[in-house]
Amino acid sequence: MPEFNEGLKKDYFGPAGRSSHREDTVIEINEVKVGGSDLAIIAGPCSVESREQILNIADEIKDTGACILRGGAFKPRTSPYNFQGLGEEGLRYLSEAGRASGLPVISEITGICQIDLFGDIDIIQVGARNMQNFELLKEVGRLGKPVLIKRGFSNTLRELLFAADYVMNEGNPNVILCERGIRTFETYTRNTLDLSAVPVLKKLTHLPVIVDPSHATGRSEFVEPMALAAVAAGADGIMIEVHDDPVHSVTDGRQAIDPEAFMRLVSRARAVRAALKEE
Ligand code: PEP
Ligand code: MN
Fold first, then answer.
1. Which of 125, 149, 211, 242 most suits a substitution to test ligand 1, by most atoms within 8 Å of the C-beta?
2. Computed from CA positions of residues 92, 61, 44, 177, in that sequence, does the dihedral angle turn out positive or negative?
3. Ligand 2 ion: residues within 5 Å (CB)
4. H-run or E-run covering 271
5. Ligand 1 pocket check: which of 151, 177, 215, 255 to mutate, most ligand atoms within 8 Å of Cβ?
6. Rounded to whole angstroms, what are the CA distances from 177 to 40, 46, 149, 158, 205?
7. Ligand 1 close to Cβ of residue 233 (< 6 A)
8. Cβ–Cβ < 8 Å for 201, 25
9. Which H or E element spans position 42?
10. Entry pTM
11. How far, in Å, CA of 235 to CA of 272, rounded?
12. Which residue's CA is the nearest one to ligand 1's atom 4?
């Protein structure tokens, strides 16, 4: 495998690179496509809080345009004293809600020891904090299921592409990349959404690129504008935290939007996408 030399080579050439695969990769999960002409919309709560909560939210969003249901069961929390997620029980409720609503499901894995619990989960998420957990990346690569990798808050786009290569080198071509904001000196928003990541990644890689404006901004009022900007920038999809009762959300309530706001966001996002296609 050629060694990457940042100083000499501006283009990226690993298996995730455009030079190894000219066409855009489209990942199919049941009837849902991520990449290509469709706009993928991933939505759901930050955390699975109870069976009722996830069944309710799945039911509310399934008709408003969500194509993939999210819900965290293993939560990577900054403080060890905060809710850590329902774990295995949470994954069970999430897959039940997926079956009931007909939506494929995605959840975050935080350690190799959890791999066997993800049998009914359609897409495995490797979060920002684990983007460079290389052993975990290799292990989810061997599993062969679609993997969504979020950009670490202090990682470059090349490092994100290398993370994708770790998965792909194990024979798993089904990788989705997600920009979710990086750390800068600005503290008004939770992170700074690096939207130039979208056209840059679309140039460098054939993999689908999605944007998470919820974790990027940390504030519900900024989620829609940045979601629309992400679509305008050419993102293949968006990931939105939606809660039926944001104020009482156990985690990340400040950035959650309710199903009604989500419905508005989706119809505007689709309009932006359609405007791009008209050219
Ligand atoms: C999440 O999507 O639930 C999450 C924890 O996101 P991130 O890894 O981007 O912080
Ligand atoms: Mn969250």
1. 125
2. positive
3. 46, 252
4. helix 259-278
5. 215
6. 12, 18, 5, 12, 10
7. no
8. no
9. strand 40-44
10. 0.95
11. 11
12. 127
Cβ–Cβ contacts within 10 Å for residue 259, how many? 18
3-class DSSP state of 146: coil
Take atom 6 of ligand 1 and give the residue whose Cα is closest: 127
pLDDT tens, residue order, the chain (279 aa): 445 544 435 556 799 999 889 999 999 999 999 999 999 999 999 999 999 999 999 999 998 877 999 999 999 999 999 999 999 999 999 999 999 999 999 999 999 999 999 999 999 999 999 999 999 999 999 999 999 999 999 999 999 999 999 999 999 999 999 999 999 999 999 999 999 999 999 999 999 999 999 999 999 999 999 999 999 999 999 999 999 999 999 999 999 999 999 999 999 999 999 999 876
Residue 190, ligand 1, Cβ within 6 A: no
Question: Which residue's alpha carbon is at the smallest distance from atom 3 of ligand 1?
Answer: 46
Amino acid at residue number 24: D
Query: Which residue lies with its CA nearest to atom 9 of ligand 1?
Result: 128
- Closest ligand by atom to 241 CA: 2
